[in-house]
Amino acid sequence: MRTQTRAIAEALRTETIGGVIMLTATIAALAWANLSPDSYEALRGTRLGPLWSWTSGRRTAC
Predict the structure, then answer these.
(1) In a designed cystine with 33, which of 6, 12, 14, 40 is the match (CB 3.0 to 4.6 A)?
(2) Per-residue pLDDT, 26
(3) Residue 14 has what pLDDT?
(4) d(CA 22, CA 45)
(5) CB of 12 within 8 A of CB of 6?
(6) Segments of the chain scoring below 70 in pLDDT
(7) Under 8 Å between Cβ of 44 and 59
(8) Is 40 buried (19+), middle (13-18) or exposed (0-12) by CB count in 10 A?
(9) CB 32 within 8 A of CB 24
């Protein structure tokens, strides 16, 4: 019984920490978007990943 209680307490702590991290990141993103819109837009338009796109069913370089 004590092992189950410990496992549940650990899971709750882990989920709480994850929620706090997500909430902090959300608040930081909202503040950044409202305080410095130009730099936020520049980052938002940045492409990550391979430099390929699909156009008319064919793979082309961007």
Answers:
(1) 40
(2) 94
(3) 77
(4) 22
(5) no
(6) 1, 51-62
(7) no
(8) middle
(9) no
